[in-house]
Amino acid sequence: MATTDTTTPPRGLVALPATAARALVAIGAVATIASTFMSWTYTSDFPGDLTYYGSPAGLQILDLVAGVLTLLFALTLFGVRGLGWLNPATAIQPVLLAATSAFAVSWFSAIAIAVDLKGLVALDPGAYIAAVGSAIALVGALALPKPGDTFKDYVTKPDNIPPAAKLPAWGQRLVITAATALALIVFAYGVGVDPDASETFLGYILLVVFGTWSLFTAGLFDRFAQLNAGHKGFATSMAFLAAALFPFVENNEHNSNLGVNILVVATVALGLNIVVGLTGLLDLGYVAFLGVGAYAAALVSGSEFSRFSGVQFPFWAAMLTGMLASLVFGVLIGAPTLRLRGDYLAIVTLGFGEIFRITVNNLDGTSGPNLTNGPNGISMIPDLNIFGFNFGSNHDIGGFSLGRFANYFLLMLLITAIVVLVFTRAADSRIGRSWIAIREDETAATAMGINGFRVKLIAFALGASLAGLAGTVSAHVGYSVNPAPYQFAGSVPPNSAFLLAAVVLGGMGTVNGPILGATLLYMLPEKLSFLKEYQLLAFGVALVLLMRFRPEGIIANRRRQLEFHESDDTVHIPEQGLPDSTVGVTKAGA
Amino acid sequence: MTTTTAPSPVLEATGVTMRFGGLTAVRNVDLTVNAGEIVGLIGPNGAGKTTFFNCLTGLYVPTEGKVAYKGTVLPPKPHLVTDAGIARTFQNIRLFANMTVLENVLVGRHTRTKEGLWSAILRGPGFRKAEAASRERAMELLEFIGLAHKADHLSRNLPYGEQRKLEIARAMASEPGLLLLDEPTAGMNPQETRATEDLVFAIRDRGIAVLVIEHDMRFIFNLSDRVACLVQGEKLVEGTSEVVQGDERVIAAYLGEPFEGAPEDTAAAAVEAAEAHATEGDDQ
Ligand SMILES: Nc1ncnc2c1ncn2[C@@H]1O[C@H](COP(=O)(O)OP(=O)(O)OP(=O)(O)O)[C@@H](O)[C@H]1O
Ligand SMILES: [Mg+2]
C-alpha cells in the first residue's frame, strides 16, 4: 500500500483534511445519483436501454441505489440526526465499501457499454459523470482517517460497535418486517433480471456484494440477527410470508419457474445439511434420493408413460410413497456402511448415486425389465389436483393471476416450510444433539452412551426421505422425469456436487445457509449465460476461495454468534486457569 | 446387587488382557471397585492405564478377560457400558468443542432420556417436559461443578481447568454408579488440583464410586481408599495408600525415579521428590 502521508496516524490513504474527505464522498455520491437520471449511451442496444433522461433503468437503477447508500453513509459521518442507527460506530468501513459499490457499478457499466458497443464514443455524458462522481466518492472515502494499518482493517467489521438502543417490541417487529421486505425486493429484482442482460446481473452482483458487506461492517446484520433471535417465530413467519409474496411481486411464469426450482434445490440442500452439516457424514450421492422420490411420484402419477399408467395416487399418498421409497433406499445404503468409520460412506454413496442413474437408464424393457422407460423417462405427468385446486391452470387471487408455476411455487414453499420445521426441531433436541456430538467427536459421543450407528442411520434416512419428499413435487413441476439430472456432477443443478457445494458455501449446520447457497448457485449460471460452460470450474474456484477466506460458509452457525455474544457480556480474557507452570503437561493417549 | 453384607462390588474386572499385535499393553489385570469407594490407578507412562480404561468402557474389546458392572457382564460396546452405569472422562480432553457447555452436559443425559425423532418433531407436552427436566438436571450439575454461569459458552472457549470439570459434569449426567477419571488434574495448577480433590470427594458422597488415574501422587494418596499400581501392563500392587507408598517394587518402578511429566513436581508433597529435584538442580 502506498501511503502519501505517514506522519499523522489518523490520516487516510489520500492526504486530505477529514472534512474535505467527507465532503468529497457526499459530492461524489450526489454526482453518481444525478448521473443515473441522465442518458448513459445513445443507443438502446445495450441491455436495459440506458438512453433516457429522467428515468433510470437497468444498471442505472443499481447505480442509483449504490449512490444513495454511499450518500447515506457519508451523511452519518456528518452526524446527521436520524441516521445514527445506520452506522452506530460512525465507522469508515461502511462508507468505503458503499463508495466501492458505486464505483464498481459505475465503472463496470461504463466499461461494459464501451466494450459491447465498440468504443468510448458509445458513452453519453451521464456515463462519464457516473464514472467521475463515483471515483471522487471513492477517493474521498480513502482520504477518511484510516481504520487500521492493513487493508484488512478497511473491510472488516470494527469491534467497537455500541449495542443498539432498545426499541419497543412493535418497533422491533417493524424493523424485522421492513428488512424482510427489503430482502424480498432485492431477491425479486435479481430473479427478474432478463437472462439476456448478463451485464445488468453482474452489476446487481457487484451491488449486492459490496452493499451487504458495507451494511455488515456497519454492524446492521448483527443487530438484525439479535432482533430475529428475540422474535424467532415472528421472523420466520415474515420470511415465509415474504417468500409467499414472491409470485405476486414477480408475476410471470418464467420467474415463478425459476423460483420453484430454487426452492426444490434449497429444500434438498437443507435435507442434505442434516446428513453433512449436523451429523458430519459425507454423502456424495444424495441427489439419487431426490431421483427416487421423483420417480416414485411419477410412477403413481397416472402418466400414460408410467409402467403403472392406470394408477393415480392422490398427492398426499404420492408424497408418502416418494418419501418411503427414498427412506428404504436410505436404510439399504446406510445400514451396511454406517457401521464403518470414515470415508466408506462417501465412496458407497458416490457409487449408489451413479448406480441409480445407470439402473434407471437401463430399466427400459430392452436392457432390463421395463420400469422407468429408460433414458426417455416418464413424461406427461399430469398436474396435481388437490381438493379441486388444479395446479395446471391459472387462478385469480386478489387481482393477481397466478399461473401454473406460481401454484407449484406455493406448494413447494409449504414443503420447504415443513423441511425447515423438521430441521430446526430435530436439531434442537436429544437426537439433534447426538448428531452434532457424533460430528464433533464420535468416540466421545459413543462413550456418552450414544449408539452411533443408530443415530447416524436415523440422520441418513431422514435426509433421504426429505429429499424424496422434494422429489415428488419436482416431478410434477417439471412435467417429466428422466435419469439425466441425477448425477454426481454436471452442468444442470440438481446434482450431488451442486447440493454439497450449496451446503458448504452457505454454511454447514445452519438453516439459512444452504437455502442461500442453493439460491446463489442456481441463480448465477441461470442469469450469467456465458458462465454455463464454466460452471464447474467456477464452482471449484468459488469453493477454494471460500475455504481459504471463510471456511465456515457465508452464514456462520451459532459458533460465531456465540463468540460475539460472549464478548458482549463477560470479559474472561485473563484466564487464571492456565499459569505458565502447566505448559507441556498434556500427554497424548486414547 | 449381591445379597451379602460385605462391600458390594460395583466393578469387577477379571483377567483383562489387551494385546496390540505383539505388544501386550494390559496383562491379566484384576480389579474390583466397591460401592462408595475411591480407587486410584497409578503407574509410569505407557503402563497401560488408559488402555485398561478403554477396555473397561468398551472402546477396546479386551483380548481376554471380562468386565462386570454390579454383577452383570458388560458387552464391549461403549454406549451399552454407559447405559449400564459406567461413565468416563478422557486423558486428552474430548469435549464437543462447538457445542455449548450446557449442550455438552445434555448429551451426557442421552442414556437417561428417551425422546426420539418423532417426539422432537411433534413437540408434544411429553417432549417439552422431558427436555425441561433434562435442562434442569444439567443446570444442577453445572451448579455442582461451578460452571452454571458459563452454561451458554462454547466449550472450546473454556480455560483448560474448566474443560476438565465440564468433562466430569458431562460424565455425571449419565447418572453413573461408577465414574472413571483419566488424569483429571493434568494441566491444573495447585489450587485447581485441590478443588478437584474436593470435587471427587463430593462425587463419592453422591453415591458414585470413582476409579481415578493420576500422576499427582499427593492427590492420589490423599484421595484413594485403595490404590493399584500398573507397571508394563501388569498390576504390581494393590492396597491402601500407605501400603502402596511403602512398597519397594512400586518405589523402584515408579515413585523412586523422578517422575517426568508429572504435573506439579514442585507442589507434590512427596518430600523425597522435592528434595531430589532440589539436589538435581544443585548438581547442574
Ligand atoms: N490403539 C493402540 N494400538 C497400539 N498400541 C497402543 C494402542 N493404545 C495404546 N497402545 C500402547 O499401549 C501402551 C500403553 O499405553 P497407555 O496409553 O494405556 O499408557 P498409560 O498408562 O495411559 O500412559 P500415560 O501415563 O502416559 O497416560 C503404550 O505402549 C501404547 O503405545
Ligand atoms: Mg494414559
UniProtKB/TrEMBL annotation, chain A:
Gene Ontology MF: a single term: branched-chain amino acid transmembrane transporter activity
Keyword field: Cell membrane, Membrane, Transmembrane, Transmembrane helix
Localization annotation: Cell membrane
UniProt keyword Metal-binding present: no
Transmembrane annotation, as ranges: 20-40, 61-80, 92-115, 127-144, 170-189, 201-221, 233-249, 258-278, 284-301, 313-335, 405-424, 457-477, 497-522
Top-level division of the source organism's lineage: Bacteria
UniProt topology in membrane: Multi-pass membrane protein
Protein name, as recorded: Branched-chain amino acid ABC transporter permease
Organism in which the protein naturally occurs: Streptomyces sp. NBC_00119
Top-level taxonomy: Bacteria, Bacillati, Actinomycetota, Actinomycetes, Kitasatosporales
UniProtKB/TrEMBL annotation, chain B:
One CC-aspect GO term: plasma membrane
Domain ABC transporter: 11-257
GO annotation terms (biological process): D-alanine transmembrane transport; L-alanine transport; L-isoleucine import across plasma membrane; L-valine import across plasma membrane
Pfam families on file: ABC_tran (PF00005), BCA_ABC_TP_C (PF12399)
Ranges that cross the membrane: none
Species annotation: Streptomyces sp. NBC_00119
GO MF assignments: ATP binding; ATP hydrolysis activity; L-isoleucine transmembrane transporter activity; L-phenylalanine transmembrane transporter activity; L-valine transmembrane transporter activity
Keywords: ATP-binding, Nucleotide-binding, Transport
Protein name: ABC transporter ATP-binding protein
Species classification: Bacteria, Bacillati, Actinomycetota, Actinomycetes, Kitasatosporales
InterPro entries membership: AAA+_ATPase (IPR003593), ABC_AA/LPS_Transport (IPR051120), ABC_transporter-like_ATP-bd (IPR003439), BCA_ABC_TP_C (IPR032823), P-loop_NTPase (IPR027417)
